[in-house]
C-alpha cells in the first residue's frame, strides 16, 4: 500500500515547484520580449549625465525638425564621449547624425556620417556596428533608387557579419539584403538572405522576428517551385 506524503513535507516541495516553474516562465518571457542591445541610444528624459542630456536634446530637436540643432547637440555628445574614451558610444552617435541627415534629405552628409560611423566601428573592431552602418548606407541608396550602390553596401554588410555571433542587427542586415534582392527580382538570393535572417532570429530567441519573416520565406519557396515547374 502506498504511503501518503507527510503534510509537513508538502510545503517545501510546493515552494520548490513554484520557484522552478517561475524561473522557466521568466526565461520564456525573456526570450519572447527580446531586448535589442545598443539600438536605442536616446536616454530617458531629464537624464543626469551631461552626454545623455545632449543626446536627449538632439532627439527633441529631431522631433521638431530642428535638424541643424540636432546635429550640433549630437556632435557635442560625441566630443564628450571621446573625452571620456567612450568610443563605442561616440561611434553609435555618428549613426544618429547620419539618420538625421537622411531624414532631412541631405544625401551627401548622410553618406559622410555613415562612412565615418563605419570607420569608427572598424577601429573598435566592432563588426556588428560597422555592418549596421553599412546597412544604413544600403538603405540610403535604396531610397534614391541607386540600386547598384545599394547592393554593394548590403553585400559588404553581410560579409562583415558572416562570422559574427548571433545578434539582432546581424539578422536585420540579412533581412534588408533579402528585401533588396526581392526588389531586384532575384528570388533565389532573396530566399537565401531571408533564411539567414530567420535562423539568426531563432538563435537569439526572437520569435517576433522569425514569425514575421516566415510567411515571406514560404511565399518565395512556392514562387520558386512554380517557376521551376
Structure description:
The protein has 229 residues and is an all-alpha fold. The protein is 78% helix and 0% strand. It contains ten helices and no strands. The longest helix has 26 residues, at 7-32. The radius of gyration is 23 Å and the shape is elongated. Mean pLDDT is 85; it is low at 15-40.
What would the keywords be for this entry?
Serine Threonine Protein Phosphatase 5, Tetratricopeptide repeat; mainly alpha; 229 residues
Outline of the structure:
The protein has 229 residues and is mostly helical. The chain has helices spanning 7-32, 50-63, 67-83, 87-103, 107-123, 127-143, 147-161, 168-183, 187-203, 207-228.
Helix content: over 70%
Biggest sheet layout: none
CATH topology of the largest domain: Serine Threonine Protein Phosphatase 5, Tetratricopeptide repeat
Structural domains: how many: 2
Q: How is the secondary structure organized here?
A:
Layout: H1 7-32, H2 50-63, H3 67-83, H4 87-103, H5 107-123, H6 127-143, H7 147-161, H8 168-183, H9 187-203, H10 207-228
Helix pairs in contact: 2-3, 3-4, 4-5, 4-6, 5-6, 6-7, 6-8, 7-8, 8-9, 9-10
Amino acid at each position: 500500500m502506498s504511503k501518503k506524503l507527510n503534510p509537513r513535507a508538502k510545503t517545501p516541495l510546493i515552494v520548490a515547484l513554484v520557484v522552478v516553474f517561475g524561473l522557466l516562465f521568466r526565461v520564456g518571457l525573456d526570450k519572447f520580449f527580446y531586448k535589442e542591445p545598443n539600438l536605442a541610444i536616446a536616454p530617458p528624459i531629464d537624464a543626469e549625465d551631461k552626454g545623455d542630456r545632449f543626446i536627449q536634446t538632439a532627439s527633441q530637436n529631431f522631433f521638431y525638425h530642428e535638424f541643424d540643432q540636432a546635429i550640433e547637440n549630437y556632435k557635442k555628445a560625441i566630443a564628450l564621449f571621446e573625452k571620456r574614451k567612450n568610443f563605442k558610444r561616440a561611434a553609435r552617435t555618428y549613426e544618429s547624425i547620419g539618420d538625421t541627415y537622411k531624414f532631412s534629405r541631405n544625401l551627401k552628409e548622410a553618406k559622410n556620417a555613415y562612412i565615418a560611423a563605419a570607420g569608427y566601428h572598424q577601429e573598435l573592431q566592432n563588426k556588428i556596428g560597422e555592418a549596421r552602418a553599412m546597412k544604413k548606407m544600403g538603405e540610403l541608396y535604396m531610397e534614391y533608387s541607386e540600386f547598384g550602390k545599394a547592393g554593394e553596401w548590403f553585400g559588404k554588410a553581410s560579409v562583415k557579419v558572416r562570422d559574427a555571433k548571433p545578434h539582432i542587427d546581424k539578422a536585420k542586415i540579412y533581412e534588408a539584403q533579402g528585401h533588396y534582392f526581392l526588389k531586384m527580382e532575384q528570388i533565389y538570393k532573396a530566399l537565401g538572405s531571408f533564411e539567414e535572417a530567420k535562423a539568426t532570429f531563432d538563435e537569439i530567441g526572437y520569435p517576433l522576428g522569425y514569425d514575421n519573416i516566415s510567411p515571406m520565406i514560404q511565399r518565395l519557396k512556392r514562387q520558386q517551385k512554380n517557376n521551376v515547374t
